[in-house]
Amino acid sequence: MTIPPKMKRILLLYYYAYAALSCLLEVERRGGHWADGLKQANNKLMGRQERDPPRNFSLPVGQGDRFNGGTKAPRGLGTQPSNSTVPSILNLDEINSALTGLSHEFGIEMVQFPTKTYENRTIVGAKAGNFSNDKVTAYIESGIHARERGGPDHVLYFMSDLLWAQREMTGLRYGGVSYTYADVQAVLGLAIVFFPTVNPDGLHYDLATNKCWRKNRNPASANSSDPSTIGVDLNRNFDFLWDFPRHFAPGIKAASMNPADDSFAGTAAFSEPETQDIRWAVEEAFPNLGWFVDIHSNAGVVLYPFGDDSNQIADPDQNWANSSWDGKRGMIPDRESSLSYQSYMSEKDRDVFTVVAGNMASRIFDATGSMYSAMQIAHMYPTSGSTADYVYARSLASGKKNPTYAFGLEFGRTNWNHTCDFYPTSQIHNNNALEVGVALMEFLLGAVKQRKAISPGGGGRVS
């Protein structure tokens, strides 16, 4: 049988994904990062040797300020000719300048988090859309892991696309996917708050040093003789099952208590000013928060809760808040009957998560041909203290009538030609910009559809 070229490509991509994912849990249990497993799997498939020195080839970081202190507003690829490109990664000053430029150009309101970082920086974002009455708030954040370059850029350029398209009464186009002016109006009917980088200290350090730095820069737990012990993994510092040695099955490394590890969870849940700021946003600043997305790179995956174990809809007793299941979480698949546990989620919420995540992944393929998977967090690897789990679980615990649907987007692909896999080439970065644009449009359109579905007689589902 002759397999068409397109089908060959799809099958090959599935094979790569399966081969890589099959080693993630073991890599994580050994203390490595999942990207290490992806790189090792890819090297084996491509016949590369671990001793082969990678080239340090990636898109440069911008110098100066292309937005002239906020007197010029950014504009993304979705409202420009199809041959437009982004020339370099935004530096931290440019990220803040771009926000100011959007505020000046479109009159959107700037938002500042109340708690300063260790290096005395203020996390800054902005509000766009319709914040009147009971409008559902959609929250977009990026940059929680410093080395995952491009996330802050893509958020800024996407939001600029929405605002330019609204002003010019036009639609958006990302690769092979187009959105109408009506789509733009629909998503801006939501209340949208966005924070391009929620780890400015770590981002500034990584951009300045090219150290492939993941954590923040808090030295409270550091050993002066070991620079790697500086900082906390902010995406393990929230209070969702933070004490992973107690909550998870033996041997499941859902985070780390070693300050030298990239996944160091800190000394306590919410020990860090950055996570305290996000808690303020979720619990105080935006009471109508209904949708949340945390943007990362570089696995090509759309994620949703839970991160502690496989989901199930049959037994509400098996849930993240029930301490009687401590010591049993995270074993996927369960290897012993005594460790049998799966995390409960309502059928309605499962449907919302799977439909919206699936839409995001499939439309990315339509846009660029890139294969993305839609999966729950635990099926990439078990985690504790993650942002999306905290946001969704917190909304359930608070007794909100409607939960906050929290997603994670791992955009893009690994740059095998750099010692830091997270630093994109120009081609990868510009492709990522298209993919994030599509993913965020589908995320926001999912919020629009869900808003209609939960109106009287709506039935609480999306389609």
Report on this structure.
Mean pLDDT is 88; it is low at 1-36, 42-51 and 454-463. The protein has 463 residues and is of the alpha/beta class. β4 and β5 (177-179) form a beta hairpin. The strands form three sheets. It has an eight-stranded mixed sheet with strand order 1-2-6-3-7-12-8-11, sandwiched between helices. The chain has a two-stranded antiparallel sheet with strand order 4-5. Strands 9-10 form a two-stranded parallel ribbon. It is globular and about 60 Å long. α1 (5-21) packs across α3 (34-45). The chain is built from twelve helices and twelve strands. It has helices at 5-21, 24-29, 34-45, 92-106, 151-168, 181-187, 200-209, 244-247, 273-285, 347-368, 387-397, 426-453, and strands at 109-112, 124-129, 137-142, 172-174, 177-179, 191-195, 289-297, 301-304, 311-312, 343-344, 373-376, 405-411. It has a single domain, classed as 3-Layer(aba) Sandwich (Aminopeptidase), CATH 3.40.630.
